[in-house]
């Protein structure tokens, strides 16, 4: 990775701070492909020596790029160039389908699948009586080897058969369609917060790093609630696109 900075010289007499010059040099190397997306970056000392600056100055440059979403810190791995974000339109699609569309090789690790009484905070959203039986499952979605989403879903029991191998094979909406259930409309709320310790470990983040949150309630063509989903994403991995119209 140090070879990607071959020929880079910082101007120590410039009024532009050295940390900002270093950040600009790294950003340019990322944008033109000299530092490939998903690659591991060298350590602070190595990079600082290569650019002729102090370690604290290099740390400030790297923090600037972390804040911009161009670098990420992965537990047990170190600092990496952030993978290219997944572009998601605000539409009724599954992450599995969006990753396939982007050529990102979706994979799923099923963490749990159980039949339980419906949690009280979910029952109203699904139009169920308190403690009605539901299927609750949690999945870790990966793009290649990169964990990019932690997804918790609740589905009314008896809606359709859902097996472990099906959840690992494809997306939930494809399973719905294959089972004769047609997703038609959904309400969705997007937010952000700091990652907790357990989800940070699964998503290979540091606790306290930002995660994008999404809560969705989907309905079929008869207006019947079919899914309550609560998903968490590393903030640097996603951007949402929507059209705004002046009515």
Description:
By secondary structure, the chain is α+β, with helices and mostly antiparallel strands. It has two domains: 2-81, Arc Repressor Mutant, subunit A, CATH 1.10.10.10; 86-241, Chorismate lyase-like (Chorismate lyase, 3-Layer(aba) Sandwich). Helices cover 26% and strands 34% of the residues. It is built from eight helices and ten strands. A six-stranded antiparallel sheet has the order 4-5-6-9-8-7. Strand 8 and strand 9 (225-234) form a beta hairpin. Helix 1 (18-31) packs across helix 3 (55-67) and helix 2 packs across helix 3. The model has no long low-confidence stretch (mean pLDDT 85).
Task: For the structure shown, list the relevant keywords.
247 residues, alpha+beta, Arc Repressor Mutant, subunit A, Chorismate lyase, six-stranded antiparallel sheet, 8 helices
How do the strands of the widest beta sheet line up side by side? 4-5-6-9-8-7
**Whole-Å distance between the termini?**
50 Å
Beta strands, count: 10
Total tally of structural domains:
2
The CATH topology annotation of the largest domain reads as Chorismate lyase
Percent strand: 25-35%
């Amino acid at each position: 990775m140090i070879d990607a900075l071959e020929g880079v010289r910082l101007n120590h007499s410039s009024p532009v701070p050295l940390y900002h010059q270093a950040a600009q040099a790294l950003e340019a190397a990322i944008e033109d492909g000299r530092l490939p997306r998903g690659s591991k970056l060298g350590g602070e000392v190595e990079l600082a020596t290569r650019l002729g600056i102090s370690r604290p100055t290099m740390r400030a440059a790297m923090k600037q790029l972390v804040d911009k979403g161009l670098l990420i810190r992965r537990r047990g791995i170190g600092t990496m160039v952030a993978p290219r974000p997944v572009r998601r339109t605000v539409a009724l699609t599954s992450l599995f389908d969006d990753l396939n569309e982007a050529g990102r090789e979706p994979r799923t690790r099923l963490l749990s699948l159980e039949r339980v009484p419906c949690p009280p905070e979910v029952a109203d959203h699904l139009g169920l009586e308190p403690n009605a039986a539901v299927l609750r499952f949690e999945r870790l979605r990966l793009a290649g080897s990169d964990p990019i989403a932690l997804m918790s879903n609740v589905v009314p029991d008896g809606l359709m058969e859902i097996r472990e191998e099906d959840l690992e094979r494809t997306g939930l909406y494809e399973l719905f369609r294959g089972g004769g259930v047609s997703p038609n409309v959904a309400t969705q709320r997007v937010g952000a917060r700091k990652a907790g310790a357990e989800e940070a470990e699964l998503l290979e983040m540091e606790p306290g790093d930002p995660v994008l949150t999404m809560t969705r309630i989907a309905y079929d063509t008869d207006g019947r609630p079919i899914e309550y989903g609560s998903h968490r994403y590393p903030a640097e991995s996603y951007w949402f696109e929507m059209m705004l119209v002046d009515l």
